[in-house]
Structures are given as structure tokens and as C-alpha cells.
Amino acid sequence: MPETVVPVSRERLLSMMTAYKSTYLLRAALELKVFDSLAKGPADPDDVAAMLRTNPRGTRMLLRALAAAGLLRAEGEQFSLVDGAEELLVSTSPQYCGGIIQVAAGDAEWDTMRDLAGAVRHGGTLLETDAESPGYPYWVDFATHLTFAVRPSAEFVAEQILPWAASRESLDVLDIGCGHGLLGFTLAKGDPRATVTCLDWPEVLAVAETYADQLGVADRVRYLPGNAFDVLPDAQYDVILLGNFLFQFSARRCAELVRRLAARLRPGGRLVIVSFTTGDQPPEREFHAAMLNLLMLAWTSTGELHSTTVYRNMLAGAGLTGLETHDRPGLPLRYIAGHRA
Ligand SMILES: C[S@@+](CC[C@H](N)C(=O)[O-])C[C@H]1O[C@@H](n2cnc3c(N)ncnc32)[C@H](O)[C@@H]1O
Question: Are the CB atoms for 321 and 341 separated by under 8 Å?
Fold first, then answer.
């Protein structure tokens, strides 16, 4: 990730033009469970091939490529795990990243980005079924596998909300586009009075339900299936969460939704946007956000990452006051909130 603008070089171009091979290398190694096969100790390609039931020649070439990429250590014909691989790449580890890699480096994003130039010409998605389509299967994978990556953000959000919520009479939370549900469930874990209403597509809510069970908060969670623009409940809430949701839509659509949601806050209640943002810093310091923005271009009709200022203006435009913005080093997301008077 370039931190400052440096001249174009052949090395940089080479690394960009070959980056897809590293992605496929990682995908293949995880699919074949290469790291699992080395968890008990070093092995040579023939042993690994026997364990994985793969071809010895193909296995030798794959292992050498993994060593070249720094994911394995090679000593003569023996291959072994490098530091960190046992924790992150062996499927029995609680920190296993295979799920998130399956989503972030999976076919859905890959196929979407294939005609990026076409999306640029058109100014939006060219897909027949895109990220806004009900039943889009990617969202079930996202909800299922991204929990490991989301946990620190959920804890960060809870730290902003729970101390403030302690002096309120109730903590009824509406989580729009909840996905896995972890943002709301972490609040429910931290405050036994909290209730959470999860809104998302029905098949995604089925995934959230499993996490509510695991976290022991299921009895305080209810589910609202459907399109967030159509099925908003009439009830009033203390906190309304919009976690990584608004960047799928134009600023105009977001502002309309934020206005409708603001009317569903109890007096003093908080509307919270948790999101990647763009435009807050020079582009070279927003590499991942800029890449995510391309995905929004390619798989939504009007989606786009908005800046902190745009989000704050949405909250102010909905009549909310006491605007707050927080971020934390190491977390790519911003927390932006406004209060109902
Ligand atoms: C990027 S995920 C965010 C999940 C979670 N809130 C988080 O912060 O990690 C976006 C979620 O919005 C849901 N979603 C997208 N469009 C929606 C719509 N129109 N109505 C309801 N949910 C929608 C998706 O199914 C997905 O679960």
C-alpha cells in the first residue's frame, strides 16, 4: 500500500500486474488445506501430496510458490509453517482467516471487478444480479465469515455507546443491514437491558440468529426481514445503527433514509453511522477505502463511500445535534453519531 506518492516504476507495475497470482495461490492453498497438512510438522512434497490426495508434481510447484511468497519455509525438500501461519491459516485455529479470505478473495468480488472499465464507462454496475438484489448470495457469506474481522469494530462501537447508554431508561437498538449482527449483539452483551432489532434480508438474518444464540443474547433479539427502504418499523429506539450500510447507496438516498430513521429515535437517542470513508485524507492514505469504492462502483447502481463531512451533513440535515466523530488507530472505520434533541 503506497503511503506517499512515489514515481511509477517497473517493479511497482510488475507487482500490480501479478498480484492476482498471489491471490489464487492463497485461495488454492486454503482450498487444498496445505497449511493444515503441515500443522503437525515439516513434510516433503510427496508426503503432503499423499496427505492431500493431490498430484506430487503439482504439490511440489505449489509448495515452492508458497515458500516464494513467504507463507512457508523451505529447507531442502522439507516445507514447514512460518510464524503466524498456525494461528491464521490452519483451519482449527480460533483466529483462522480462511473464511474472510474466501469472501474477500472469492469469485463474487472477482467476477464483479472483471469489467471495471465497463462500470466506469457506464457509471455503475453492469451486473444483472448485483449487490442490491434481494437474495444476493454474497451477503450470506459476508455475514457468515467476516465476524473475526468485525469483532474489534463491534467492541469499539460498544465503547462509544455503553457508557452513555448507562444513564438512559432503556437501550432499544435497531441495527439496519445488520449482517452477522455483531454490532448490536455486542451492545446486548454489554448491557442486560438492551434489546436489538435486526433488519436485513431474510437469509442473512438466519445467519445472525446463529450468532445471537452463540453470544447468549437470543432472547433479546427480534428480526425484521426485508428491504431497509421499505420495512422500517414504526417503533422508537434509543440507538439506530447503520454499520457499513450507507456506502451501498447514493448520498441522496442515504440522506432520505437517515431523515426517516431520525424520526424513529427517542428523545436524546443516537443515530450511529459506522463506515469506511473516502475524501477525508489524500487518496494515497486511503488505499483500502479507494479499492472498496471501486467494488461499490462495479456492483451497485449508485453506491459510493462518502466522506465524514457528507455523513455529518446527513445527520445535521435530519435535525440531529451533538455530532460526534471517532476513529481508532488500526481500525479502518469511522464512528459518526448524532443525537435527537
Ligand atoms: C457490508 S454488510 C454490513 C454488515 C454489518 N452491519 C457490518 O457493519 O459489518 C451490508 C449489509 O447490508 C445488507 N443490505 C444491503 N442492502 C440492503 C437492503 N436494501 N435492505 C436490507 N439490508 C440490506 C446486506 O445483506 C449486508 O448484510
Answer: yes
